[in-house]
Amino acid sequence: MWLVTICLLALMTTTAYRPLLDSTIATADPAMVLLAWLALIDRMPRIFVAMTIIGLLRIWFGIAEIPDTFVPLLAVIVSVRLLRQYLDPYHPLKRFQILIPALLVGVILQWILLTGGLVGATELVLWSLLLSVVIAGLLLPILDLMTPLLRSARYPL
Fold first, then answer.
1. CA distance 70 to 77
2. Model pTM score
């Protein structure tokens, strides 16, 4: 069930975010939020399967090349795993303190890979932070309802 959900979400965001990514506007899309949420609560093999599926679907639909696709996703996973060692992932507000900086790292890294620099970085950081907060705020309660479907997940609720 979780694999179907990830595939459908990655497929929908691949087609929906293609014009944004082609115009080099950095966005924290729902598939990246889903991957960050999985990195927060699940085991590494399942996280890497989800990252591979999301990345391959994005490459297949022609959003970006291999480094442009997988490096930001890997940065989000590493950031979440590092931050969850210092912050309590079981507290609802502290989960935002883990996920929002991790999504911001992924978005900024994606911007650097697509444009080659940090020109206009202040506006990028502000808009990316706002988008990350809004999308994570909308998706996290829905994703938390899906947690019982992940039988191997560590329940941070």
1. 11
2. 0.77
